[in-house]
Design brief:
Chain lengths: ~375, ~350
Amino acid sequence: MRPCAVDAMTPYLEMQFANPSGAHRMARASRAAIDDAREIAASAVGFDPHGIVFTSGGTEADNLAVRGVAAAIGTTALCPATEHHAVLHPVEAVGGRTVCVHADGQIDLDHLRAQLGPDAGPAVGLVSVMLVNNESGVIADLDAVADVVHADAPGALLHTDAVQGVNWTDVPEAARSADLLSLSAHKFGGPKGVGLLALRPGVSVAAQVLGGGQEAERRSGTHNTAGIVALGAALAELSANRTADIKRIGALRDRLADGLTTAIKGCVETVPRTQRAAGICQLLISGIETEALLVLLDRYDVMASAAASCASGAMEPSHVLAAMGVERTAASGSLRLSLGWCTQAWEIDRAIEAIPPCVEQLR
Amino acid sequence: MSRVLVAMSGGVDSSVAAALCQRDGHEVVGVTLKLWGGPQDQGCCAVSDVDDARRVCQQLGIDHFVFNYAAEFERDVVEPYVDAHRRGVTPNPCIACNRHVKFDVLLDRTRRLGFERLVTGHHVRVVDRDGRRRLRRGADDAKDQSYVLYMLSSADLAGLWFPVGDYRKDELRMLAAELGLRTADKPDSQDVCFITAASGRSRFLAERMELHPADLVDTAGKRVGTAPAVELVTVGQRKGLDLGGAPGRRYAIDVDVVERRVTVGTAGELTAEGVALVDHRWAEAPYTGAVEAQASAHGQALPARLDAAGQLHWATLQRRVAAGQAVVFYADDEVVGGATAARQPA
């Protein structure tokens, strides 16, 4: 975690433990801290503070967006086949449909138009497109998506899962066309277990967690005060440093990708770097299975991942690469190396040194 | 000391196998295989079993990984299982899983990852006969699993280790309890791991293939009844055959899926002099002469003779063996080979 986030949350784990929904002095202090975080968050993503709904993380925020809009206006939803499961599964649950992507990971706008049409099925009230794909790092053009949605399904809303995107794009600009936006604190140096859904004025969602009516009746449950405060602190620091971080991390990522594609035969990047976020290096390595590679890398303190993990902890074949048309055998050799705000050059050099011999051992 | 990879199902046997390797001073890493993505109520790869395996590794202080072999399992175990029924053959999916998943792709990966040996919790022992390794029955007769591992070659066995084969099951449970492992009292798995008790084999197969009603005929060819699905009838089966209340016990003695016809007969007509065998695996050179032969996982090994063509002749008449079943040959309690039963028309 970012030290500023740890420092910010610690008092709320120790002495300032009052429930912010209370009326007394200590409660009001907690409430003030949450309201501060709400304003920081709203400003960081370019939304109104009234539209910020704190949740337990990105998955809950995505569920609230997809299921909450479907329940509020009685429509279904669409998303690209490359979305995170936190969007894919709720879209499936509301009877929604997926949209194809091109080989470069960008949404197929012609297919989107077709899926929005009256012949495609039940009316669509929400289209969800993630700002930056968590596996491939592909940055979406939300303005282009919004143009199609507004033209072909007037009144339908655009949601973006910006859980990855917040680190690597100027969110207020990149997500200006989005009506709803999800974040998760642990992706930018905050704690796990806290996130938010941001809503534009006039956008309403039906609560999916019922109870005491917190968050303006949109998400019940006693506030995770410490987590929310830490989210605010981390997000503020991220926003202040982002431009410099993107430059520094992008250079490290390039060094990593260049180093590995040079040292390992049959190793390529999945999509061109120009279309990809700075912190994600995704490679396809021929002749190996990443599942085995990860066991070796672990011994050299290189902690990488392949695609998603299922409930058992097993690696699942990447649905993102499958949707991009990468065939299964090639996809089983996919390696995702993520860089973050605290990644250092020596770590990159260590990875460049450790990975090629591990690949060689498996071939 | 060596580096070993322990295949851990989440059961007590493989838990203790890992503990025994560790006790002997080896560097131990645990792995659980995710094999089946569909519904199940027990078996090798339910999430709760993975949880148990991981927890045992945490208790022992060793690393634990999960390998996803669901695609291989579907291709090499489930699809052949369904296809065997389509052909009127009675498959043994545990043997297919051992042959194609555990002791093929997993063993290969074990070597590539630099482990000296793959360890499993199977109840078998390995003996050295002049530099060649042979599989021997486990010390606990009731738990012996040499039948489902007969396909392992001497070269395979060199890369394997079965530390629980020297113990009785009650000793293993006691060891697990002494170590405080959460799997100490866990019941043994029994049936096919990818078929739930709730919906059963017939529903599983009905979702994956077309089932056809069968005529039941006697050995003279006379129609005597019907069965709901020819593909679900196994040689030796008595239940589920509608013989219209005819007196006397009748058994399926031949299954012909092409003609959709099941021949039924008396207990006497169910017997055969021997077993026609294909797809032999030998521990060393092809074996001829007296053996004990076992035709099911927990069946009794019975005296028999292997002829020069590898065909089996029982010492006394025995029940017919369903096509597709493995028949494993033992000399004393060592596996000298095994093969698959072919169809023997009545």
